[in-house]
Design brief:
Pfam families: Dynamin_N (PF00350). This is Dynamin-related protein 5A. It comes from Vitis vinifera. GO terms for molecular function: GTP binding; GTPase activity. This protein is of the alpha/beta class and 789 residues long. 37% of the residues are buried. Helix 11 packs antiparallel against helix 21 and helix 16 packs parallel to helix 20. The chain is built from 23 helices and twelve strands. The chain has an eight-stranded mixed sheet with strand order 5-8-4-9-3-10-11-12, with helices on both faces. Helices cover 51% and strands 7% of the residues. Among the domains are: 172 residues, P-loop containing nucleotide triphosphate hydrolases (Rossmann fold); 217 residues, no CATH class.
Length: 789
């Protein structure tokens, strides 16, 4: 550990700052105003630590490398040793050391912030807290016990939090006749490498934690660096510069100064070193201190005498051991532990005085906030026994959520879409649905990269569904499937076999490919509407805070909010299920054999489209057959001979339309005339080129396109809008109300009074009441301080 120097006048409270540059300090005991101000801040600091209050209290934060002398400096400031460095506490948790000058305390009285028992609201049990009281425990008599307490508290807390270091401070109050009025936060020392058994990232965690502790602008940084380190190679000085680039609130201390003194012989050498010119700037003057190296057990009086002796020895060497001495007028106020101690106390008192008005105003604000919070808790506790009041508030809140859902559907830009909206890709991934089934192409509707929610996001999904549906073409059908369908129709007779076969192929394809798209569209739309619950809650909260609570104060009723969310999600899920059934019904209707969709004019009139479609219904003329096998000729004349199942030319005759039945040549001996199996090689009017297979597939694709167009444009769009949006606007409040409130009082109260809930509220109120009491006490104290300024 490092050493540092001290002054002769050790029992007094200094008031001079180095900027005064007087050769002699004027020491006196603290006056009542500065003492009361210091005590007020000490109590406020303890309360802030206990309750987690973020108060800009002027504080000194000591930082530096692990062997740069912070712990030795703390012992010198206290005026007695307690071997804090032996426990290496600096690598674990910060120590807030509140030093109080008390002329009656001839022996040090050290007390730690008390541990208290807390009611744990998560497991409903009594657990021991960790320095969670603003009160202090009994004085520690033995100085050696201080190190043990620091070590045990550190290890217990780190084990509890399962961490290697923690920013949760240990608070110790030391009252002594030989210490100044000073509060210092001793931080973990910077290290380059983790100790054995520690995580490798421990150095980074320490650096990050110290930076966090030192960053608040109301804190004074006390940076220690031993004299053997050159300014140009100081690693930790760079870390300090990141926190305070101009050193405006940094006090730099060069420790173990006596080790460096041996290198100086001439005045110019020591003056150049003391000025630190070129590295710290002209306005920054470091302090140079040394402390006793002897670590043997000595009395407190002997320890303070040794500190004063080292101070005197350093000054004597500078005056007598250096040729020409040193610039005493310029550098004397910065040499020795006594000067540093004096400066720190006076600087902190000055900051306390400057911050008192702002601290008073902040305390008044916090007292008002805590009082308001306490009133809210009282109201909540009272409401747990008032069922009618709870029902009214719950109904108002539910109505507010329902109304905000409707507003978001109709179009709103609050809350901010940039924060709450989602792009198409996020909707796909977060919903767990992914891309559209059966489609390999990337579907990007317009505005896919904009963050939308509510009605806008709903319409975007609708448009995305249209894009996905129109990107599907009628899939290719095998020749075997075409033959099975076509020949079966031909076998049943009639003149529309080819057209019916193409229509049946289109209907099967539509059922197979469009049904998954419809289900996906419903799921995506349900996801968009499901997201509106959180947005509605956010709008309700912001409106209540802006215009006063009108929707019922339901903060903290976790059970009710969970039930409301569950009911809303179930409502949306039921809508999605109903919409799937409706759009499936439309799909079944459009793909029914009795539907005329496939025979309607694609152009919407009675033009060539109708003619081309109905040409298939004309009688099949001539002794032709449809060849569907791959490689077979598209059209064959009835004179083609020597083909299986083709009657001879001389016996050719026209067949009954649709049947394709030819008689063979006249009965020969012992032969019968056998009806021929229909051969799909027959021509049909209007198709004079290309294979029958490709013509039928082309016709099926046209039928498929017509089914898709009718389904998407006429049925699905209006169904999805009326199936999702209309119920959300008109029936949401009714559905939620029946679900949550159409129950008896006992079941209704289950949402509000869970087992142990009353105890939790009472315990929370107790803790808040204690905080209010402490803050009010601090406020009254600071009012007295302000009057004395």
């Amino acid at each position: 550990m490092a050493t540092t120097t001290t002054s002769n006048a050790f029992l007094t409270t200094p008031t001079k700052t180095p900027s005064e540059k007087s050769k002699k300090s004027h020491h006196h005991f603290p006056n009542s105003d500065s003492k009361s101000r210091f005590e007020a801040y000490n109590r406020l600091q303890s309360a802030a630590v206990a309750f987690g209050e973020k108060l800009p209290i002027p504080e000194i934060v000591a930082l530096g490398g692990q062997s740069d002398g912070k712990s030795s400096l703390l012992e010198a400031l206290l005026g007695f040793r307690f071997n804090v460095r032996e426990v290496e506490m600096g690598t674990r948790r910060p120590l807030i050391l509140q030093m109080v000058h008390d002329s009656t305390a001839l022996e040090p009285r050290c007390r730690f912030q008390q541990k208290i028992s807390n009611f744990n609201q998560y497991n409903s049990g009594i657990v021991e807290g960790e320095e969670d009281s603003e009160e202090y425990g009994s004085p520690v008599v033995l100085a050696s016990a201080i190190a043990d307490i620091i070590k045990s508290r550190t290890e217990a807390y780190l084990k509890k939090t399962k961490t290697a270091v923690s920013s949760k401070p240990i608070v110790m109050r030391a009252e002594y006749a030989h210490c100044p009025n000073l509060t210092i936060i001793d931080t973990p020392g910077f290290v380059l490498k983790a100790k054995k058994g520690e995580p490798e990232n421990t150095p980074d965690e320490i650096l990050s934690m110290v930076k966090s502790l030192a960053s608040p602008p109301h804190r004074i940084l006390l940076f220690l660096q031993q004299s053997s380190v050159e300014w140009c190679s100081s690693l930790w000085l760079d870390a300090v510069r990141e926190i305070d680039p101009t050193y405006r609130r940094t006090v730099i201390v060069v420790s173990k100064f006596d080790n460096r003194l041996k290198e100086f012989t001439d005045r110019w050498e020591v003056d150049r070193y003391l000025s630190a010119s070129g590295y710290l700037g002209d306005g920054t003057h470091p302090f140079f201190v040394a402390l006793p190296k002897d670590r043997n057990t000595v009395s407190n009086d002997e320890f303070r005498r040794q500190i004063s002796q080292v101070d005197s020895d350093v000054l004597r060497h500078l005056r007598d051991g250096i040729k020409g001495g040193f610039d005493e007028e310029k550098f004397r106020p910065f040499i020795g532990f006594g000067c540093l101690r004096e400066y720190l106390e006076s600087e902190l008192q000055k900051r306390y005085k400057e911050a008192a008005p702002a601290t008073l105003a902040l305390l008044e604000q916090r007292c008002c906030e805590v009082t308001t919070e306490l009133a809210r808790l009282d109201s909540k506790i009272q409401a747990t026994s008032d069922v009618a009041h709870l029902r009214r508030c719950a109904m108002l809140h539910t109505a507010s959520i329902s109304n905000h859902v409707g507003v978001l559907i109709d179009g709103a830009a609050d809350p901010a879409p940039e924060q709450w909206g989602k792009i198409t890709e996020e909707e796909q991934s977060e919903s767990g649905i992914g891309s559209w089934p059966g489609i390999t192409a990337v579907i990007k509707p317009p505005n896919s990269t904009l963050r939308l929610y509510g009605g806008a996001a709903f319409e975007r999904v609708i448009h995305e569904f249209r894009c996905a549906a129109y990107s599907i073409e009628c899939p290719p059908v095998s020749r075997e499937k075409v033959a099975n369908i076509l020949l079966a129709h031909a076998g049943r007779g009639g003149g529309r076999g080819v057209m019916e076969a193409a229509a049946e192929i289109a209907r099967a394809a539509a059922r197979s490919w469009l049904a998954p798209l419809l289900d996906t569209a419903c799921d995506r739309l349900a996801f968009v509407l499901g997201n509106l619950f959180d947005l509605a809650v956010e709008r309700s909260c912001s409106r209540d805070s802006d215009y006063g609570r009108k929707s019922g104060n339901m903060d903290g009723y976790v059970g009710f909010h969970a039930a409301l969310r569950h009911s809303y999600n179930r409502f949306i899920k039921d809508l999605a299920k109903q919409c799937k059934q409706l759009v499936r019904h439309h799909l079944d209707s459009a793909t029914s054999p009795y539907s005329q969709v496939c025979y309607e004019n694609f152009q919407g009139g009675s033009g060539s489209g109708v003619t081309s479609m109905y040409r298939f219904s004309q009688p099949l003329v001539g002794s032709f057959s449809l060849e569907l096998s791959e490689g077979g000729p598209a059209l064959r004349h009835d004179k083609v001979r020597d083909q299986e199942n083709i009657p001879p030319e001389k016996d050719a005759q026209e067949t009954t339309p649709g049947k394709g039945v030819e008689t063979r040549e006249a009965l020969r001996e012992s032969q019968l005339t056998v009806p021929e199996t229909p051969s799909p090689d027959q021509p049909y009017s209007g198709l004079r080129s290309g294979s029958a297979y490709s013509d039928i597939c082309s016709s099926a694709a046209q039928h498929f396109a017509r089914i898709r167009e009718v389904l998407v444009e006429r049925s699905v769009m209006s169904t999805l809008n009326s199936g999702f949006l209309t119920p959300c606007r008109d029936r949401l409040m009714m559905a939620l109300g029946l679900d949550l409130f159409a129950v008896n009082d006992e079941k209704f109260m289950d949402m509000f009074v869970a087992p142990g809930a009353i105890d939790i509220l009472q315990n929370e109120r107790q803790s808040l009441e204690k905080r209010q009491k402490i803050l009010q006490s601090c406020l009254n104290e600071f009012k007295s301080v302000a009057r004395a300024l």
